[in-house]
Prior knowledge:
Blueprint (H helix, E strand, L loop, with lengths): L2 H11 L10 H21 L3 E2 L1 H4 L1 E7 L6 H10 L6 E5 L2 E6 L4 H15 L7 E5 L1 H29 L2 H25 L2 E2 L1 H29 L10 H37 L3 H33 L3 H49 L1
Parallel strand pairs: 1-6
Antiparallel strand pairs: 2-4, 2-5, 3-4
Helix pairs in contact: 2-7, 6-7, 6-8, 7-8, 7-10, 8-9, 8-10, 9-10
Amino acid sequence: MSAIGRLGRRLYRGEVDIDFVGRYKLWSILSGALLLISVLGLVIQGLNLGVEFKGGSVFSFTKPPASTIEHVRSTFEEAGVHQVIVQETGSRWRVTTETMPTSEVTRVQNAISAEFGIPGNQVDKQIIGATWGGEVLNKAIIGLIVFMIAIILYLTMAFEWKMALAAVVALFHDLVITAGVYAWSGFEVTPATMLGFLTILGYSLYDAVVVFDMIKEVTAKLGTASKMTYTEAANNALNHTLIRSLNTSLVAILPVAAILFIGTTLFGAGTLKDLSLALFVGMIVGTYSSLCVATPLLVLLKEREPKYAAIAKRLAAQRGAAVQDAVAKRKVPATAASSAKGGGGTVATAKRKKR
């Protein structure tokens, strides 16, 4: 059986004990690198905001036989349009341009009709003002802020403020990395993308709540005579929820991956790719952050509490003494054997001298 197969069987049997919390430095370096790359993408590349946010003109018409993206783009450029984004959505072309006056829109509509032999009334056009796009963006930001406040209040009441803080940090971690992927990939940010962002926040929150609930249950038994530190108890809880988190993530990611990689390439589901990319990246990063970001941060905060600091100090002293006793016991037999050997040699020498 392959190593991957053996690992899978051990995961499903609950025989894997991964030190997630103990490797917090590794996770910190990995998350720091991902965040740095994402921020650089947002600064250098920037987000490709859709027409719904920045305003513009949208043309949609049936795809003529043998027409190509280059053909459609050149038709618009010959009509005097400069910012042209051509998308293939099933059996239609969707072309987004900069904001133009009504007269210019009509002229471009006539150029499309003449070039591709399409009646003018079959070329759909839509003009979106920058003011309306700004209102959509403001509402999206307000929705995100309200969502974050609701999360903080819920986690604070259901658990405690330290868990709420750890979960919110993990959520921002997921948002920045997902936004960075959009920046580097050049995918258009549309209202569907914003819905995807809110969805992955809810998914990441669900995963964090499952982990925190198990941690709360395990650490509630810790007392002055406990044989585990808070770190060890939290790590134990993580390993108990690991297979559940992986199963949930896999089941959720598979259909999203089908939409992203199969639907958009084979069936031309272009309107869904913005949503599916946010879900695909967010679910993967959300699972990682709940295990490797939120929990280590929570442990770092909790280990500073007097109760858990005292437990850790007592156990460290006991384990240190046990190690010293074990080392001393190993040295005693070796010393006794050496003494016996040395004594025997002295007797033999005396006998030789006597003879």
